[in-house]
Amino acid sequence: MSDADLLAKLFQGDPRSIARAITKVESGSKGAAELMKAVFPRTGNAIVIGITGAPGAGKSSLVDKLALYYKDQGEKVGIVCIDPSSPFSGGAILGDRIRMATLGMEKGVFIRSMATRGNLGGLSRATVDAVSILDAAGFDKVIVETVGVGQDEVEIVKTADVSVVVLVPGMGDDIQAIKAGIMEIGDVFVINKADREGVIRTQKELEALLGLAHRPDMWMPPIVRTVATESKGIEDLSAAITSYFDFQKAETGGMVRKTAIARWRLTELVLERLLADLMKHNGTAEKIDDLAAQIAKKEIDPYSAVEKILDKS
Amino acid sequence: MSDADLLAKLFQGDPRSIARAITKVESGSKGAAELMKAVFPRTGNAIVIGITGAPGAGKSSLVDKLALYYKDQGEKVGIVCIDPSSPFSGGAILGDRIRMATLGMEKGVFIRSMATRGNLGGLSRATVDAVSILDAAGFDKVIVETVGVGQDEVEIVKTADVSVVVLVPGMGDDIQAIKAGIMEIGDVFVINKADREGVIRTQKELEALLGLAHRPDMWMPPIVRTVATESKGIEDLSAAITSYFDFQKAETGGMVRKTAIARWRLTELVLERLLADLMKHNGTAEKIDDLAAQIAKKEIDPYSAVEKILDKS
Lengths: 313, 313
Fold this sequence. Notes:
2 copies of one chain form a homodimer. By secondary structure, chain A is α/β, with parallel strands linked by helices.
């Protein structure tokens, strides 16, 4: 299939063409930059929802139920699942393949798993490109779901229009720890598994923490209780997401956030290009291997080794 | 204090000099590269233990108890806590300050919180440098503890001599998800809060998963049950850590792992230097700001913007 055909089919929303385009940007293959240049002008129509939270919070069920809810409203929904897969196996999560089989095929929701980073960095940029592809392909809602809660994941979720942080009752001893990392990015908070003991205490703690926070935009993030496995609270969650989306659109036209996203995306791309250009030089890959072995044997320190790589390139 | 004085005091194990040296590598200030060149030849004596796991698993308590255990054996212990703190506030976790005050001052354990990444990347490299500094300062054990479980954190924990993954009973629904990301890096597994219901089921699930995995080095990771808050199982954990350390040392002299670490560290440093060199050019920072604003307004796409930045630099 030619690039022009791929684009034409992609803009019509053809799932196989979408998948192929995402593979292209993920692998950083030749036509990726040209593809994204063509995709970019068509973006800006989807509402991008980032969902993060600790493992065990039931994010996957919540995302599935939210996706089905939107689907029932007649909307096209894409899910990009960010997956801290092993750099060794590079494999996607088994569970996602199962979800893709049931949710994806039968229900018409597009799901795609992506790793946060390859060996040489840069794949968090690819996930943002994947969101743009789905946007350009005519999806109304794109949900970005993270498995991990690390810095890369936080940065990716920040590129969403609306960021949702999922907690569960009884996380008391780590709520402090989570606070610093992901509390600040939540536009909407969900207490999932809200039929469990401790939900009131968790809500009170969360309200106290949110009361201390000072958002530049003065938004007070709503707290929604859900029981995703029983589809409870999903409509409330949808309403909370819409309320923040409308708020930020009215407030700043979304420009502050959009500029911050663009800046991050630009820096990621610059880094990727700089490294790719360096690796193109004859022998750079071998030189890195060789110097890494020397560092391991303590024949050279890493800082001097870097100078050797950069001086001669 | 001159750089030579700082180094001399650092090698004597002076806490304030260590703290100052870490701040230097963290901020990437001028003398950082020279400092690390001097530090590097003194490294290689500490055993570096990486500890990761989901929020809520009680990692902090476990790390504290393990540190105190080593301390009671007459060893010097340093803790580097990796913290997905917000790029906005840049703040360390309040809880760590409390820990530093109690554990650090009174008990003679050195604790330092570090962010995984700054706005422009590269701070995961700084955490590895901090470990080297503690190593050179004569610490016997350096524990690297992550708050998040994202890709950056996984990569940092992989730079340890022994990686410990902490789980809790009843994580069933997400054990599958965690598998892909962090199962593979665990040399030792801990089921903490082992006085809770479901411990046997979690252990069985874990054993089944580990039975499926094929490690290149044929090591079968031990599973240790702990109740950190009651100091139960800490000695077993220490023994399991030592057993893997001895195993990998006998097997390969640790060379395979050391080379992989060196390679990762080198690539991180190269990226950091490439970006720093680019930013040194007159007007690059302004150009990025300007182009980010244009992307936000959809006047240009990110890929074309990158070409503008790199062509003229």
